[in-house]
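Handout, page 2. Input:
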Amino acid sequence: MTPPAPIRTALLAYGMSGKLFHAPFLAAHPGFDLHGVVERTEQRMHLSYPGIRSYPSVAEALADPNIELVVVNTPSNTHFELDSQALRASKHVLLEKPVATSVAQLHELLALAKGMNRRLFAYQNRRWDSDFGAVARVVKSGQLGQLIEVHIRYDRYKPALNSKKFKEEPLPGSGLLYDLGPHIIDQAISLFGQPLSAAKTVGQFRPNTQVNDFFSLHLRYPAGLHVWVTSGLLVAAPGPAYVLHGTRGSYVKHRADPQETQLLHGLSPLAPAYGHEPPGQAGRLTLVGPDGTPTSTPDPAPPGNYLGLFEAVYQTLRHGAGYPITTEQLRWQNELLAQPGEA
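Output:
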C-alpha cells in the first residue's frame, strides 16, 4: 500500500516559536514536508533548512496551491485575521495560543473552518511536557483517592517590560492571561473537563505596565474538587508548578520539562536524550496507608516530546483520528479567558 503523501506545510513566521517549537518537529516527522516560510525582511531560515521556500508575504504563501497546512505563529493580535485568511484560502491551520481573543471570534473561526471543510488545530504543546505527563499519569491512576485541591502554576521573574512592544500594549490578546493562561487552563481542562463555575483575579504590578502580569482562576468541579491556575511575572522563587491533594495522599512536582532548553541548544527531537528530565527533578508522591502512615517516594516523569502534537495533527488529517484538543475544550478555555475578573 502506498503511504499517504506528506503534509506540505508553511510557517507564517520564523521567530523564536518557528525556530524552536515548529520547524524542528515538522522536519523530524516523516509525515510532513516543511516547504516554506514567510520572511518579509531577512531570509535566514534556509541557513538551517536548505531548500526552504521563502515567501515575501502571507498572501503569497496562502496563494501557493502546494501548501496544505499553514502554521499561524505570529503575534496574538493577528491570529484571528491570519487564521481567517488561511481558512478562506482552503488551508488547514495549526494555530498558536490564544486561538481567539473573544468567544465571538472563536465561534466565527470554527464556523469558517466547518464551512470550508478545513481543520483548525490548536497548538497546545504543554500537554506534551514531561512534568505535565507525570501529573496526568498520577491523576489517571487514582492513587490520591478523591481529589480535593489542585494547584497549577506557571511563574517567572521578569520585572522589566518585554522588548516586543506588541506584548506590552493593551491590545486584544496581550498580557499574561492570554500569554501563559492558555497553557495552564488547557492543562486543567484536559485533566478535569469543564468547570461548574470559575472566579478570576487579574493584576498589574510591574512598573509602567499597561497589561496584566498576574492572574489566578479558581475553578470549581463536581465532588468538591477545587482547582487553581495561577501565573505571575514577579515570582523570584517559584515553588512547585503542580500540587495535588486527595483523600489518600498528595503529589508535588516542579516545572522541569527540558525541551525548550534542549531545542535552544540544537538537540533534535529524535535524539535519545530528548525530553528526559535531568536527575533530581522527579515529583514526590506521598500516599497514606491503611494504618495512617504516610510513605513518600520519588516519581520520575516520562519523557516529554512535542512531536506527539504533530503526530496527532498528522493522524487527524491523513487517517481521520480525533484531535485531542477538541472544539469543546477550546470553547471552555476561551470562555474562561474572556470572563470578567476582579482586579
